[in-house]
Records
---
Amino acid sequence: MIRRVLIANRGEIAVRIIRSCRDMNIEMVTVYSEADRDSLFASLSTESVCVGPAKASDSYMNQNNIIAAALKTGCDAIHPGYGFLSENPEFAGRVAEQGLIFIGPGADAIRELGNKSAAKQLARASGVPVIPGSDGIVGSVEEAREVANRIGYPVLIKAASGGGGRGMRRADSGSGLTAAFAEAKAEAIAAFGSGDLYVEKLILNPRHIEVQLIADRHGNIVCLGERECSVQRRSQKILEEAPSKAVNAALRAKLTGYAVKVAETARYVNAGTVEFVLAPDGEVYFIEMNTRLQVEHPVTETITGIDIVREQIRVASGMELSVTQADVSYSGHAIECRLCAEDPENNFMPSCGTIDFLHLPGGFGVRVDSAIFPGIVITPYYDSMLAKIIAHGKTRGEALYRMRRALEELIVRGVKTNLGQLYMILYNREFITGSYDTGILEKSGIREYGID
Ligand code: ADP
Ligand code: MG
């Protein structure tokens, strides 16, 4: 069994992992950058080591320093969280070479599924429907044009190594394709160091539905149901819920079957998420698999009662999952809101400063995952997410009311946030009825809305 874990991340997810370690009586070492010296996660952990300057590439992505810190502090495993090194196959491989356990899938699975174009081919080979598009990477804009002419516009040009909604551009016609191709390529090179692109049909008015699964080394794969993540801005999720209003038992069984097929083909171990889009005509298509713990995992934990980080650690230790598929049942409904330090009046650009007053919500059915406290300085170096607020109810309506109550209680002063926008979503007609798609924010006109 793992006894001491190094957490190679920061912010709320570092705190989240610390909590499961404590529940399991496992010691934890955190790493921090010079900008995070006064962070909550560093003070909550058994031990904490500085791994470099503020810039993420010099600290949280500094493989040498992180591995050295793990060895020096006597850790036997590394949890990468999400972002940073979590989907880096080279890192996973190096961790294993040093005799440490990487709490996640093997380097080969990360490599194969991390390339979204290759992952699509793997899904298709497993009998899972994928969106019509190019057969792998397109080498040139001419090749992209041929594909677009074959499948029909609008199309989406996507970066094979993309993530976080970046490296994607829509093209509505042949004339728009050249610019879309160039922009996607430039953004992909800047963000991911690879300009490999593929083309797929743009599904109009889709819903984003994903399936959480976890697999152990003994051949067990357990699915923990779906999450609805269609409330997105710039293709980035900002509110998630489980279960999805658009998924009935038959569709759930179908999605679960597809997710298991992908995991089996990839010989997947540990927690992972298979993402789909659901078209208005009811067809579902695989889009990608995220080979890590996902930001929105708490909604699944809330309705299943299963601690996903705990299962990750058990599986990484070589143990069997603590639950079988037959043990999994769903209780009520959960909604998560991502509170971000952003300026709604300035195109949701990151907002920096000192949080000089803070009141986080609580009460029945409310969970908050965060690492902020009064006095913390929000710097421009990392992700702008400040906290996740999760509300649980016996019904979707009860969860919605509790989330409204939670946001009413939430007070953050010193930085601008998207709180006003989140609040508006909870009063939006389409959201209330549950009949929304990924265009909800654009259609509702609540894209820009701030509360001071
Ligand atoms: P990322 O790696 O950035 O998460 P995804 O491939 O998961 O990229 O796509 C991000 C979001 O973009 C999806 O959640 C969905 O809303 C939208 N999207 C992706 N592909 C398509 C598509 N072919 N048609 C319509 N929407 C899409
Ligand atoms: Mg995605």
---
Amino acid sequence: MAKAPAKKQKQDDRQIIRIFDTTLRDGEQAPGNSMNIEEKLRIAKQLQKLNVDVIEAGFPIASDGDFEAVKLVAQTIKGPQIAGLCRSSEKDIDRAWEALKYAGERGRIHTFIATSDIHMKYKLQMEPAKVLASAVKAVKRAASYTPNVEFSCEDAVRTRLPFLAEVVEAVIAAGATTVNIPDTVGYTVPFEYFNIITYLKQNVPNIDKAIISVHCHNDLGLSVANSLAAIQAGARQVECTINGIGERAGNCSLEEFVMILKTRGDILPFYTNIATEQLTPSSRLLTTITGIGVQPNKSVVGANAFAHEAGIHQHGMLMEKTTYEIMTPESVGLNASALVLGKHSGRHAFKKRLEELGYDLDDEKINRSFDRFKTLADLKKEVFDEDLDAIVADEAREDEKFKLGHITVTCGSFAVATATVQLEINGTPVRTAELGDGPVDATLKAIKKLTKTKAKLMQYNVGSITGGTDAQGEVTVRVAEGHHIVVGKGSSTDIIEASAKAYVHALNRLHSRQKRVSEGV
Ligand code: KIV
Ligand code: ZN
């Protein structure tokens, strides 16, 4: 019998939406999210695994630290394009390309100027004609280095539409291949944003020569909904961040936006290149590095996003998972913690596991981390990936003015808590004792006295890294002095020690931040 002709594959007519990740630029600008160069590289490597289309690695003219980070990311990361932000001035653009050129044709210059009346009048103090001329000049300068030029009309949503269209047309004619229409202040609502993008599609004659990008802030909680409305009107690049971090209320959350397209492919004819099983690891890595966790009920990556508590829900789940689950935990990379190593594991297995987790440590740091791992494995029956993250985060720190030595505490329901703390300050051991309202208070007071810090402890949180009473406690503190706010983290099976580590970590970060500022870096 003749075989039936193979059915013709249905043409995939879904449209690609490019994901431009700005965790390392807009995200990093937000208070408490600042990262050092090593941390930025780790995030960039994770973004590479996540398969984002563009990584905005920083704002090269902002500081030498930002410049070096963009340069290192451009030199190291393969795959995604690497963008660097710059204002519309020659100096900014030249500096950005200086850092980006290492990515070759994957290097993207992202230049911007504000176009709304309010920004032009009060911030720039420039007439619209001058703003238009600066935008065109900037794009031409950028295009002299690379054809990969993005131009942003800052505060586009509050810009008069005819002027917005005029600027967009002029920058495309000058060589911009992506035009970004940001909602800088998180002011728009979905139907209005849809209409703005539609207006540009209808009133900019050369609009098809560039990709329309959107960049939404979350001041009214609409950044994801607005981004969705924009792609329905024709935008084809969405700028977002892991965990939605960013200026003020943050940016469009990458994981939420991507999972909407994946989950509602039945009515949304779009797709992204994102490896969605890397969403949870990306979210966790960012949390580990910044110390800023996501709320438990956060969509997609919150601790409760896949937890079913109510009896009726659990019953439904047992019968058929799709009764209450619209996406699987596996699809976003949420698997039960994997038991990886135990006290019999050797250095080789330990090093290999760290490599698999994306760590690239020198021998000295591996050795220090391995010693910590052995101590932990003796105390704890099971050592999980999350424990390894915490160990490495503690041990991989550089440039430490303060080093924690020993702590002894006495406390109890009848005793006044006392802590004796020994630190090394620039290599010199110092020691003191303090009383406190509980052992943590006494310990932190002793550290405060020894370091003579004027920083204020703004926040103290304690949680456990994995389950069980032998779990490591993880402490996060937020410390502020003047304009500087930093987050410190520490982990240990002993929460007093974890608290001391977190506080010392924060004071070291504050010190290196203040040092960088005073050196003009
Ligand atoms: O929010 C904004 O307008 C920005 C631009 C610089 C793209 O971050
Ligand atoms: Zn922004």
---
Amino acid sequence: MDNQKTKEIWFLTGSQHLYGDETLQKVAENSKQVSEALDRSGKIPAKVVWKPVLTGPDAIAEICVAASATSACVGVITWMHTFSPAKMWIAGLTRLTKPLAHLHTQFNRELPWGEIDMDFMNLNQSAHGDREYGFIGARLRLNRKIVVGYWQDAEVVDDLAGWARAALALAESRSLKIARIGGMNMREVAVTGGDRVEAQIQLGWSVNGYGVGDVAARINAVTDAEINRLVGEYEDTYVLAASARKGGEKHQSIRDAARQEIGIRGFLEEGGFGAFTTTFEDLHGLTQLPGLACQRLMADGYGFGAEGDWKTAALVRLAKVMTAGRPGGASFMEDYTYHLVQGREQVLGAHMLEVCPSVADGKPSLEVHPLGIGGKADPARLVFDSRPGPAVNTTLVDMGGRMRMIVAEIDVVKPDHDMPNLPTARALWQLRPDFKRGCEGWIEAGGAHHAAFCQAVTTDEWEDFAAMAGLEMVRLDADLDIRSLRNELRWNDAAFRLGR
Ligand code: MN
């Protein structure tokens, strides 16, 4: 997950010919300084690349076409240091296929009160240059991120950095291949399904099914030497229960799980997949439901969804891309059961097996226990509690004709009690603004029982991603008002139908 600095964000500065060479020279120097400061901030997870000042429609069109055609370029930041008549931007912006940010800033922070003259005024025109430029974005109905403030302020850099993370996720989305091992959703389940052709048109996801037998053949071909090496890694990385260690009665399950991990990993690498699903309803040729393998592959950056849930698998992968280099992880998650003591209501999130150890608080324990579903041997799994702190749960549902993203802000808490008999990884959280409204909002919007649980992606970053992808986005946070939400959902229905 450290390949992000190979990507670029292009920094485009708008101006016009009217000002003459001396002023344009100054514009170039200043904008280069802004661009380099952003690059050096260490916060933007891509190279910020300064481009020569744009003074006419041909050059603008040319750079926008180049940005669209350059695979390393994941987005462009635009800024009007001076006035840049916005009809000049129409040809370029209508051809731009990469995410667009509009930085509304000014080179100087303070007015030079004693020295200010018309030369200064002519050089520092962002206040109205960015308004002229902003109009054409609105007129073209462009999805763009508008970031306002002084370019050296941490808040401004953070906003651009968050947008850049979403832009990296969009680039990933447009080339994401998702393997459905077993090729099916859990029978009769509604929310994990959806229009895969529409998902590919809108989000770029290529979602295809593969026979579980093909994967089983690969798993069976794994050698003992490979298994020995990986089991050694397990012993170094996790706490192993006595029964799971060499010589223990459950050790064979650990070896079988290692075999599955190596086989599935090879299958995913060979196919160039970024995400995958499994299903307990199709395990032909597998000795146990893959649990440990899914957990460890997620920890290495793969997206995962259980029960054929390809939408959540994709979201987990996008969250992995967005969180790269940040503390905190991302995982497949399910709202499992509740603690309903009044005023202290909590959600216990987990899954049968497949929660990513990137969200673990401390060293996970590797254990083998029976599983009352799937009718196979006892599967290995990592067991742990999740790190406390703020997080978001993100879901994507197919509303018929469009996808809706729902992002809920939550606070993960440390459990007051041990759960010694619960043999699965879990997270305990509280909803914002409170349990009643948090649940009602999620259910009202049609949120799934699965989610991408993210400790290091913010709601704003998901919102930026949704805007870039043209998705409907519903946020459930501390400001949630149920009546407004109902109206928002009703109006969104109309807006997305009219917009089609
Ligand atoms: Mn499930």
---
Amino acid sequence: MIYRALGKTGLEVSVVGFGASPLGDEFGAADAEEATRAVHHAVDQGINFFDVSPYYGRTLAETRLGQALEGHRDKVILATKAGRYDADPETGFDFSAERITQSVEESLTRLKTDTIDLFQAHDIEFGHKVQIINETLPAMRKLKQSGKIRFVGITGYPLEILKEVAEAVGVDAILSYCRFNVLDRSMDDVLTPFVQKRGIGLINASPLHMRVLTEKGPPEWHPAPKRVVQAARAATRYCRDRGVDIAELAMQFALMHEVVATTLVGTSKVRHVERNVKMVDDAPDPELLAGVLEIIKPVANICWRSGRRENDDPDAVPKQS
Ligand code: NAD
């Protein structure tokens, strides 16, 4: 395993991180025992960064991860989130100081720990920017002073709001998802130069574009426009015809990024952990990658709408287009 500094936090995180949303059955029902084995295998393989949220499986993922990490807590850097609790864009979010402060207590209990290493405001594009800046992040800072959390982060899909909020208040880490992988590299247009200048830790989540870049293909709820999924299916076949699983190429591609501290890939399966860790030592085959990039060229960097209209990136498109 290779480790990198997470911004200026002093934390050294594994370049492959463990995304625990599948532990909350977000990609279909997980086998709880297999998920526990996957967590243990990840720890054995040197993965030390684990990311979860109360939102994943509406607390199920935190509960399962907390149980799996019993006896291993000292070997891992634990990240969770607050502010997102349900899928409904109107009722599923609460970024108030009161809820954030209560949320950390609930997460500490479920995760069976005394401290959260990285506490992140979850999907800030669904909140009001003014509240995130003036209320949510100050509440998180207080939690940092009290020792309940060690570092503060923000997460989301649109890139501009992540940058604007971090510019206004300062954060230790930013988690961006589906914005740097074989299908979309727009993270580099907005966030990468910004975090480099500020010394903020950069976490790149969803290198498989939330399962679009796998043989199985996307879950039914996936927000990507149809033409993006269709191009990815064509690229998957192109890889298969050449004896390669597109998930491996996608992991290799994401891991080439030199500014990203950790690439968060989600799984609840031992075999995925094994394969993803192996990709740390492998560069993508240049010819195969060029072929894939050519296939997806017409849909490259197409992003979808997420959150409040006023927080969205200007070029986002509706799901069905
Ligand atoms: P992902 O791109 O990592 O894809 C995960 C899916 O791919 C799962 O269904 C998993 O079973 C499958 N998979 C994993 N490795 C595989 C392999 N080698 N071969 C075939 N299939 C494989 O998407 P993700 O899980 O959404 O993202 C990773 C993590 O990042 C999440 O679990 C979460 O912790 C974090 N995340 C955070 C946010 C946010 O804060 N807003 C958003 C997205 C993701």
